[in-house]
């Protein structure tokens, strides 16, 4: 049977690849987990004094409504009722905030002397460049907004809880030496800056050097380049100093998660499976541990060694084109052109799965189109490369059969039966994975309403044509 033409109600075309049932994302675990700024005289020169701002004859009733950003200088805010009242964003602050966010460190602001509403308005007007060099309001980068309160002890206790941090893992910039109290009481690392200069790039960098061991060591990743993608649990960057590598930084990665990951890795590196049982807190560390092990086995992990992991890793950059970038993928899902093109891509992905199993003993278990890139020669796909090794298990090729290992997977994608010890002949192994790829792809198509679910399920009743290579 050849590719089938099916009449269906929805003729929309899916323009992007299938999303994973679960993609493993990974943020930076560092000695410094949060950087906090007192805003007055530290982030900006001057003070948002509610006793002085909004007191002119034309003042509006809400103090914050009297703040206006200059039309000729975006780093200047003045009081519309009394233009002698003004604050200016300090020169290096936008780039310092950009660096903090790139490093995956939480950002906080506090103020004893200004109201939250006034500070929030100023932080909305003032901007910083995000990872794509687009100007964004600073307030959008703030994780902990504790302006308008003079009780620093309570504020920093709260931040320590929110950030899952010890006092020594928080860096606080202020121009008032009274703030040293939180160092004495809670161990917060306090940097006192001058009223005149506030926080400069030099003082910021020096503080990191002093309090966080500088730019080297296993706790800090190599220099980050362009942001390539971001998910709920991680960001992926180009490596600024290595065009052939990328860096993945985990979000919400704590000292406790790191400690547990290292314990789990000590088990799985011996070849034994790790079963977390009902301990859901072990799920995330286990998935990261498996990804590190798998990348290490297939020689795509560059640094650090899994035993030295601290929330980031650098891996080989896999070059290729996603299928949805090719014009043939934009054809209707039930057209002959689409099916023949997709079938060819699936068999190339299967070639890559088998090659890795035979060479390294690892079976990729999530090779949907988001996790595969291709080389194309015109309309002909010629090679596939696999991405994202978070969902993969050990597998042995004994010369005649593929034998699945006993790794414990937290996430088992739909339509799969990943049982330990299952044996496959080469033909049955290919049929198993091609069937999964087709079902997963067409499931995504009807979930995106490119086809109807009824038509999609009817289409999947007979997959014999898909098993035959062109």
From TrEMBL:
GO terms for molecular function: ATP binding; phosphatase activity; protein kinase activity. Keywords: ATP-binding, Nucleotide-binding. ATP binds at residue 248. The keyword Zinc does not apply. Residues 222-470 form the Protein kinase domain. The keyword Nucleotide-binding applies. This is Protein kinase domain-containing protein. The lineage of its organism: Eukaryota, Fungi, Dikarya, Basidiomycota, Agaricomycotina.
